[in-house]
Every structure is written in structure tokens, then in C-alpha cells.
Amino acid sequence: MDKNTIMAVVLSALVLIGYTIVQVKFFPKPEQSQVTEQTAQEAAQTEEAAQNSKAINEEVKSFVQADDSNESVLTEQEYVIETKKFRVTFTNKGGDIIGYELLDHKDGKTGRGVEMAENVTASNRAFALSFGGADGPLVNDLFIVKEFPAENGERKIAFAKKYSDFTLVKQYTFKDDDYMFKMNVIVDGGENFTALDFSTKDGAKAAYTLRTSPQVGPEFNPKVDRYESRSFIAINNEGKGKRVRLGNNQYKEYNKPYQIAGIGGKYFCELIIPAEDGNFQTAWYTTNNPSMSIMSDAQAMLVRKPTTQKQTNDVYYVYVGPRNEKDLKKYSVAENNAWNISGYRLTEALESSGFLGWLETILKWILELLYGWVHNWGVSIILMTIILKIALFPLTMKSSLGTLKMQEMQPKLTAIQNKYKDNPQKMQEETAKVYQAAGYNPMSGCLPMIFQMLCLFAMYNLFNNYFEFRGASFIKGWIDDLSDGDSVYQLKAYIPLVGNHIRVLPVIYLISQLFYGKITQMGGTLQSAQSSSQMKFMTYGLPLIFFFLFYNAPSGLILFWTVSNLIQMVQQVIINKTKANAAKPAATTVKAVPHSKKRR
Question: Which SS3 state, helix, strand or coil, does residue 497 take?
Fold first, then answer.
């Protein structure tokens, strides 16, 4: 070994020794007790789940053994559990839910609480199981039932059925003041138990499938309530949400990883959260084709992987309640919810605001600020509209006065177009010079209109997603719900494009839009190159199209647009007078010669 090699080995050894000393002294490994708060919390939750699993298994075994002799004489019965938030009705057939009424949110059509277990039938019930895949029939056996006494604001009910080689148990636990409940699906295998794996139609294997309600409320007619919708929701472990707007006759598989899955409506949702990741292989979402009088089913089905464990206790947290940020965000922090769970980003179930989310946030903040003062959402909308129109008026005025400059420049622009019609680049350069010399920006004329349309789209999303508008009254007896259309009379027959309600607010909007178009036309703001037919379409045709398009839109949106038109009419009158004065030629003044000064 030569000298250089020896030196290299020695230096390398010194570097390694020095690195080790520095690492140990200045960057020591964390002690075992120095774990993150999240890790400690997850460990505590895991331990708690294990203890609960053991307790439930022992508790369930005791009541199954005690009531085993009565199983042969079981009859179908209903059971009711009521908390501060909801009233739940169960059937011992399958241990399923057949009624789920939210007590603190009323359905305007029925006068009762919103029903979250809609379209329940003998072949499709809420939170029912089917052995195997999503295409399997419901478990329709009669179960033994045990109702537990209420304790510390908690209510429990359990359903059990003994099969040849295992016992199936479904237990529901409710907190008195929380929209979420816990559901345990327990499989207790006997001596002959080998696995819970049933074949599906596609040849795969599955233990069972857990489904949401056939439909979430409130009830709606899809051919009339065009602004209602249902969506399949899936949220993965990274907190990213997937929302699929459901149409008719769908039966599709969602085979990407998910942590949460369920169905969302306009204002309410059902979300199932498996407490243990990795047990579910896929999810399905399905709808059918409704008649004129009923909703289509909109349902999510979670397919559980096969299991060979002799004792299985699958824990689910199920949220059934408002689809709003205030209630959904509680489950991201343990201290904010009754179940002491954390890390679940249920707010991803909210409808996406898209690229106008920032504008919705601003408008919502202004509305909430005004509501805190006037305590009426309709008045808040009117005040916000006035504020927006006043703030935009200087820009609107500048845009309108810019049309006078455009008229003055028109001869020059026409000459440039004729001269450079074969050279578009040169035409653009010369046109820009004319604009620059006159101090005119062609884009300035579009800004007020663009911003107004953006506000309209943002308000449309806001009224369809902002929960606080639901049931918010403006004028009792006329506009009782700003999230729905106003109604003065309900027809028995359905009229195409209109529906079965006589509404006044869209008519007021139409009249205001027609008057605004006439006043704008009187101001000469339409370009002279436009044909008479185009002008008539803009003045009469477009408002009629919007009238039918938005006839059944939320009354809050129509109120915003109507008030905007009324304010714009007043502003347009001011603009018209200002333009007329600016267009008058300057008066020529003649200096008079005093008669007292005569020629000499």
C-alpha cells in the first residue's frame, strides 16, 4: 500500500470520527419521551380503540348468549333514539336505520326536521350491510336488540345475529350534542370460522359492504328544483377531496385510496370515516332514474376487504348533518368535538368555489359584517349591493365617458383600418398610437361589466353553498327563504321552464332589466356599428333569456341582481346627463365694445 493510499484512509477515518462526535454532541437523537403531540394522540386513540373493542366484544357476547333462546320468536320492530340533534328510528331487520330526522334544521316543505334517511324501502335501508360486494342483497335477518341506558350524555343500541360460524353485531353510539355517531361492525367467529370472504359478481372477494342512506334530505323534485344536486364525496389521507356530481342511472366504482366517503347534497351530507385505514378496497356510487314525484337514489357503498381474523371490530365514525364549515371543521382538532378525534379534514366535503373562491370569501365577509348590524340577510344583500355599486361608480363613469372619446376617434380609426387592411400588425400599432394620444384605454370600458359578472357568479355559488342563507327570511310571507325562489302561489300542474310556483321577484328583475336597457340605449352607449336587430336583442331578448334561466334561482341572487339594476338605472341617468354636457360644443363668447368709446 503506497503512502497516498494510507493518508487517504487515515483522513477518511478522521472525518468519520469527527462527524460522529459532532452529531452526538450537537444533534443528539430525541429521547423516547420526545414524541410529537400527534403521534402521542394517535397512540392514545389506538389504545382506546383496543380497549373499546375488547369491552364491546365481552358486552355483546353477554347479551347475545342471554337472548339466544328468544331468537326463534323474533318479530320485526322499530326502536327510537333521540338526542338534542336528531331522532333516529331503527329496525331490527338487519339492525338498520329507517329514519334520521335532524331536529334543529327544519324542512320548509314538511315543517318537520330534515329527513336524512330518504327513499328507504324494504330492499334499501340506511347504513345497511350486504355480505360481499356492493351488488349483493341487504342482510334482511331479524336481529336480537339491546338498548343501553343513557349515561353521561351518551346513548347506545346494539343488534346481533348468530349465523352458523360467526355472530354479526352492529352497535350504534350517539353523543347528546354532536352530529357524528360511532358505529361498530363486529364479527365474532366460532369454532368453524375461517374467513369472512364472499364472492362478488366480478369475481373478486369482499367481507361486506356498508352503505349510506339511499338519499339525503331534504326531499326535492329533480325536475323542478334544478338548483338542488347530489354528489359523491371521497377524501384521501392527504386531505384532498374528490366530488362527483351525480346524474341519473349511475353505478360506478371509485377505486382510488380514500379515508372518508359519502354523499353530499346542497346543504347536508353523510360521511363515513373508517377508523382504521386500509380495510376498504373500493367504493361505489349509484343513482337511479326518478319519476316526477320522487328523488332518485344517491348512495355511496363502501366495500370492506375480506378478513380472516376470528374477532373483528370495525369502527366507523359517521357524520350526518349540515354541510357547512362551522360543523365540519370540528373533527380536525380533538378538543373541538365530543369524540376526541382529530386529523379528519371533513371541510373538503364542501362544494369547491373554484377560481372565484377569493371573491366569495370577500362577499361573505361583507355580508356577515352587515348582518351583525341589521340582523336580516335580505337587507344585508341590499346594503352590500349599494356599497359595491357606489364603489364601482367612478370606474363606470370613466368607462361611459370614454365612449365619447371613442366617437371622436372613430374617423381616424376607420381611416387606419382602410389604409392598413392588408397589414394587421401595422394597423394595431397605429390604432394604439391613436388611443395613446387621446388618453383612452379600451379595456377600461370592460372592467365594470366584467367585475359585475364575476360578482354575479360568486353570489350564485355563495347562495348555493353558504349554509346560513338556508331558511333565512327577508320579507315574511313573500321571501321566506333566500336560498330558494320566492313564491306567492303554488300550482298543481308543472309548467316547462317555470315549474309550479308563481314568483314575483323574477318579474321585478325582468322589468328592471328592460328599463335599464332602455335608459342605457338612450345614453348612446351602444356602438353605432351595431345593427338594429342586435340592439333589440340586447335590450329585450337577453333579459327574457335570463328571466327563464334564473326563474327558479335562489331569491337572494335575484334580489342582488334586481337591486343592482335599480341602482344602475339611477347611475345611468347621471351618466347620460354628464355625457350630454360633455358633448355640447363650447359656447363662443364675444367681447362687447363699450359705446362710450367712440372714434375720434
Answer: coil
